[in-house]
Structure formats: structure tokens, C-alpha cells
């Protein structure tokens, strides 16, 4: 006789959780979930709305410490074991110092482990042993060049670059256009291609383009979820993505 038949209710399986703070215009929550293994949840909150398009000023606005830490407090009120600030431009716009200040502020606001998207990209490149990259972004040139400067502060040089010049509705960019953007960004000297913006869909492109171009592709959402799950000692879902072959329990770098 089963426990249910005997009137004994089963225990709910223990679940773990990552907190995620995203900009108010984030449209790709469902893509983030695709990297999650069974037994891990996302607790997502958004920054307050303001009327602007995706520019350098937009990135500075969503990078304000108060804006991010308010979100951290809302998700750490629950069971989040680590908190991810899932915004690439908001975490690179003030350079390395700004990114590291954000991580410290998130920790002070209650996150046991704090990760930003740009910090996760740097972490991914470090564990892959990458020092020369091409950069593919949907941004304006001004914002894209700030990403290059940010990576350079961590010893990563930009070998190639391509940008779409968009300042809104980035989530609507079709896979075909993103794939062509990545191909345009590639350069012979690039050891990997970094694809920025957490609002740019990339999940299904990573494996086939890695096979086509013969090098790792590190995307904003992929790196963010990978780095967060590393803090839980869990592996990300995602077949044939180079970054996801890194052992979940590998030593975390000091960024």
C-alpha cells in the first residue's frame, strides 16, 4: 500500500532558489528558466519604471545602487541563496569599479552571494582561459564601446565588434539577425565571442554557432545563469554549450 493510500502525505521536495533583479523592460524571463536544472527556482523582481530608451543614460539609471539594492532586499526576503543583477549594460556602464561596487552593495543589502551579468561574463572568460574576444551587441556604438573598455579593465582585449544600433524593443530581434550579428563580429584573433544584453534572445543559437565558428560563445543570460548556479554547486541546462562544461564545483575566481 502506498503512503498516500495509508493517509500519509508525501513531503514536498526541497527546492533551492536564485534571486534575480532585472530592469523594468526585461522580456526574457522564460529564457533564463531554460538554463535551470530541476529543483531550482528563480525569484524575479524588476527595477522601477522610468521613461527612456536603452542608452548610456538608461544604463546609468538602472545601475543606481539604491535601485538595485531595493530589488535585492525584495528577493532575499524569501529563500534566495544568491542574487543575480541580470543587466549587462547596467553592470558595465561604470567600469570595473562600478561593477565591483554593485556586488558589494548587493551583499550589504542581504545577498549571501551576489553576481552581476558583466561580472559573470568576466568570470566565464576567466574559467575558459579567454583573453581576446569579439563583441556582438544590440546597442548603440557608445554603449558597445563601454563594454569593450570594461572588459579591457579585466585584461580582455577586443579583437572584433559589431552592433545593431538599437535603443528599444531589443527582445524582438529574431534569431537570424542575431546570428548574422555574431558572424559579423567574429575575427580571426578572437578566442571567443561575447554577446551582450539580457534582453537579446540567444539560447538556441549558442550551440550551432559555436560549431560553425569553432569557438565559445558567451552570452549575457547564459553567463548570468551559469554563474548563479555555480554558487549553488549546480550545473546549468544547455546541450553543447562550451561554458556549461565547466564543473559546477570548480573554484570560484576572485573578481
TrEMBL record:
Keywords of this entry: Isomerase
Annotated TM spans: none
Any one Pfam family match given in the protein's UniProt record, by short name: Amdase
Record carries keyword Isomerase: yes
GO molecular function: maleate isomerase activity
Alphabetized InterPro entries for the sequence: Iso_Racemase_Enz_sf, MaiA/AMDase
PANTHER family for the chain: BLR3294 PROTEIN
Name under which the protein is recorded: Maleate isomerase
Organism: Nesterenkonia jeotgali
Amino acid at each position: 500500500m502506498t503512503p498516500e493510500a495509508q493517509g500519509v502525505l508525501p513531503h514536498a521536495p526541497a527546492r533551492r532558489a536564485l534571486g534575480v533583479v532585472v530592469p523594468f523592460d526585461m522580456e526574457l524571463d522564460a529564457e533564463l528558466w531554460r538554463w535551470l536544472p530541476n529543483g531550482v527556482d528563480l525569484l524575479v523582481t524588476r527595477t522601477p519604471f522610468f521613461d527612456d530608451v536603452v542608452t548610456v543614460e538608461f544604463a546609468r539609471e538602472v545601475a543606481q545602487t539604491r535601485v538595485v539594492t531595493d530589488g535585492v532586499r525584495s528577493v532575499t526576503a524569501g529563500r534566495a541563496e544568491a542574487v543575480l543583477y541580470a543587466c549587462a549594460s547596467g553592470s558595465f556602464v561604470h567600469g570595473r569599479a562600478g561593477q565591483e561596487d554593485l556586488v558589494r552593495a548587493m551583499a550589504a543589502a542581504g545577498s549571501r552571494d551576489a553576481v552581476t551579468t558583466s561580472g559573470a561574463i568576466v568570470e566565464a572568460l576567466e574559467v575558459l582561459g579567454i583573453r581576446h574576444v569579439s563583441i556582438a551587441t544590440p546597442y548603440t556604438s557608445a554603449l558597445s564601446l563601454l563594454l569593450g573598455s570594461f572588459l579591457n579593465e579585466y585584461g580582455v582585449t577586443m579583437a572584433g565588434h559589431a552592433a545593431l544600433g538599437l535603443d528599444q524593443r531589443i527582445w524582438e530581434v529574431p534569431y537570424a539577425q542575431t546570428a548574422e550579428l555574431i558572424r559579423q563580429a567574429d575575427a580571426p584573433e578572437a578566442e571567443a565571442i561575447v554577446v551582450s544584453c539580457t534582453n537579446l534572445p540567444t539560447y538556441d543559437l549558442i550551440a550551432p554557432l559555436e560549431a560553425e565558428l569553432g569557438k565559445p560563445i558567451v552570452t549575457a543570460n547564459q553567463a548570468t545563469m551559469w554563474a548563479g548556479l555555480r554558487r549553488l554547486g549546480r550545473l546549468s541546462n544547455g546541450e553543447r554549450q562550451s561554458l556549461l562544461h565547466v564543473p559546477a564545483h570548480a573554484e570560484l575566481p576572485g573578481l
